[in-house]
Write a structure and sequence with these properties.
Blueprint (H helix, E strand, L loop, with lengths): L2 H17 L3 H12 L4 H8 L5 H32 L3 H4 L17 H15 L3 E2 L5 E3 H4 L27 H5 L7 E3 L5 H9 L4 E10 L11 E11 L4 H16 L5 E6 L4 E10 L16 E10 L1 H6 L8 E8 H9 L12 H4 L3
Parallel strand pairs: 1-4
Antiparallel strand pairs: 2-3, 4-5, 5-9, 6-7, 7-8, 8-9
Bound molecules: phenylalanine.
Length: about 350
């Protein structure tokens, strides 16, 4: 080998680098001309067999050629890498405000539910929970509503079909094989008492279901709050006090509570309770049909039969229980005219809250 070979090798390498169309192609050429097994490397190795004089001459030139090949490679690399960058397209205005992502928010019912929980928590109530698919026993029997009693008809019920002999049947509470969608939150009274000993005070927020024809004030799926307060010495007066305190905090002004005798099999005596109309403060207006009162829920002293169903000794404890509709309270506070709006999915409604 001589310096001619060296020069022609350089020419070939330089034009190969200059013509490479992509970084990948350039890398292939790099191995070919500069790699360990390249012709150029073989050439450098062969210098060892030359006389010292020749070696100095050819070797010096070989180093220069290597430098030129490396420079040509570097130039080609920069050319190919910058070719992939289109300044016009890649330009970013870092001062441009970002695109706003839509952020969701809590449903009005969730917010009201949390608001109610906060007030009760501040009064020392614990929060309890129960299943939406309930057994006939907890929803009716344990609450002193026997199968053949007309009181069952007060709550139209969604019953669940169960195939006889199927696996589902064996998981059902032995006391009652029939399942339904709970018609109120009252079954949680018994469930809670089965595992707790008085004194205690709880609230039970939850979703309930009734097989009802819907209109502006009736829904098949809605929300309730149950409240249960059990101790040795509890009276209707305690209930009235707690109720007035709660509603006054919820509406942010003093609210009077009125009791009217009524019948619920799981309380004795039982009441329906009203609050002073939040629109006219009791003076009488179109919202309260001129009566000055708005009907809110049911209440009463816990029937001893319910304590017995939960496994308590008869006449050992006293307690009050009450239940009211969360939707209804939200409607009063936020002046919502139709209960169906809550689950209608209309964003024009939901986004107002
Ligand atoms: N569970 C009753 C209903 O849904 C309300 C209620 C609760 C009544 C507690 C009395 C005591 O109609």
């Amino acid at each position: 080998m001589n310096t001619d070979t060296l020069e022609s090798l350089k020419e070939v390498a330089l034009s190969a680098f200059a013509e490479a169309k992509s970084i990948e192609a350039l890398r292939v050429e790099e191995v070919k001309f500069l790699g360990r097994k390249s012709e150029f490397n073989q050439f450098l190795k062969s210098l060892a067999s030359l006389s010292p004089e020749e070696r100095r001459l050819v070797g010096g030139r070989a180093n220069e050629v290597k430098r030129e090949i490396l420079d040509a490679f570097e130039a080609a690399r920069i050319r190919l890498e910058s070719a992939g960058f289109d300044a016009e397209k890649e330009w970013v205005d870092v001062t441009d405000p970002g695109e706003k992502l839509p952020v969701g928010h809590l449903h009005i019912l969730t917010r009201v539910e949390r608001e109610i929980c906060d007030i009760f928590r501040s009064l020392g109530f614990a929060i309890a929970d129960g299943p939406e698919v309930e057994t006939e026993f907890y929803n009716f029997d344990a609450l002193n509503i026997p199968a053949d009693h007309p009181a069952r008809d007060m709550q139209d019920t969604f019953w669940l079909h169960q195939k006889s002999g199927s696996k589902e049947r064996s998981v059902v509470n032995k006391k009652s094989p029939r399942l339904l969608l709970r018609t109120h939150t009252s079954p949680v009274q018994v469930r809670y008492m089965e595992t707790h000993t008085p004194p205690f005070r709880i609230i039970v927020p939850g979703r309930i279901f009734r097989s009802e024809a819907t209109d502006a004030s009736h829904e098949h799926t809605f929300y309730q709050f149950e409240s249960l307060f059990v101790d040795t010495d509890v009276s209707v007066g305690n209930f009235k006090y707690v109720a007035e305190l709660f509603f006054s905090r919820f509406f942010g002004k003093h609210i009077s509570v009125r009791l009217r005798p009524s019948y619920f099999p799981f309380v004795e005596p039982g009441f329906e309770f009203d609050i002073a109309c939040t629109m006219c403060d009791g003076a009488g207006c179109s919202s309260c049909h001129g009566t000055g009162w708005l009907e809110v829920g049911g209440a009463g002293m816990v029937n001893q039969k319910v304590f017995e169903a939960a496994g308590y000794e008869r006449d050992r404890w006293k307690g009050f229980a009450w239940g009211f509709g969360t939707n209804r309270l939200a409607m009063m506070k936020y002046k919502i005219p139709d209960i169906r709006l809550f689950q209608g999915g209309d964003l024009r409604f939901l986004n107002q809250f």
